């Protein structure tokens, strides 16, 4: 797993995203790139994310070597588990 995702229900009507990337992951350029990748994944898939959850993503060490499609797939699978209430 490249990241940990936490989610709590919100009353805003749709999902919201928060991202944390620590210095253990890499320098500022790498950390900002990871944040941009997650924001883009979230933006491209908002139509599939119909559950009103506040999401927080904590990136793990080594995530900067993962490809976009692999992260997108992992993001969607993890979101669906959270939306169903399955403990991750």
How would you summarize what this structure contains?
This protein has 88 residues and is an alpha+beta fold.
What characterizes the major β-sheet?
A: 3 strands, mixed
Number of helices: 2
Mean pLDDT: 89
Q: Which of globular, elongated, flat, extended, rod-shaped describes the shape? A: globular
| Helix and strand composition category | alpha+beta
Considering DSSP H and I runs of 4 or more, what fraction of the residues is helical?
25-40%
How many strands in all?
A: 3
Q: Assess the beta-strand content as a share of residues.
A: 15-25%
Report how far apart the termini are. 11 Å
Radius of gyration: 13 Å
Order of SSEs, N→C?
Answer: EEHEH
> What is the spatial order of strands in the main beta sheet?
1-3-2
Q: Which stretches are low in confidence, meaning pLDDT under 50 for 5 or more residues running? A: none
């Amino acid at each position: 797993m490249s990241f940990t995702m936490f989610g709590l229900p919100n009353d805003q009507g749709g999902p919201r995203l928060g991202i944390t990337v620590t210095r253990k992951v890499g320098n500022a350029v790498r950390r900002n790139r990871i944040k941009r990748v997650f924001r883009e994944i979230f933006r491209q898939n908002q139509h599939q994310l119909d559950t009103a959850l506040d999401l927080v993503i904590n990136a793990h060490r080594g995530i900067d070597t993962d490809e976009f499609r692999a992260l997108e797939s992992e993001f969607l699978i993890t979101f669906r588990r959270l939306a169903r209430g399955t403990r991750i």
